[in-house]
């Protein structure tokens, strides 16, 4: 019975947090780069799956990065607009869940073509690191493969209208 109560409380808290974020998103000006708008969620942390769903609920999708210029733009957001301190992580939609070692953007299905991994990454640590996040490793920011169940901030994107 106590597990049911915990799950119910977590569901209520998450629903309220999503409602708050949705109302904040409607008021917030998003970042824009070329043909995309970005919404940076720097207050709420979620696992990969919940981040994906959160973006969907906003009518957006979890971040994909199409080229090095876009990567540099996102990196600039991390360095200047949010407190992306050492140890911080931020989800993208990249994953190799379908085939180990072959990363695709879950939001679009396209392969991850840019190579912005931190040194010695991806390493599939513990045999179950399948989702790509930005990671600030002692001041050096880049891609890391991480357990999809870990919690991190995230960025949603949508086509610029």
TrEMBL record:
C-type lectin domain ranges (all copies): 33-157
Cited SMART domains: CLECT
Gene that produces this protein: LOC108567792
Signal as UniProt keyword: yes
Coiled coil: none
Keyword Signal in annotation: yes
Species of origin: Nicrophorus vespilloides
Taxonomic lineage: Eukaryota, Metazoa, Ecdysozoa, Arthropoda, Hexapoda
Signal peptide: 1-17
Keywords assigned by UniProt, alphabetized: Signal
A Pfam cross-reference name: Lectin_C
Name of this chain's protein: C-type lectin 37Da-like
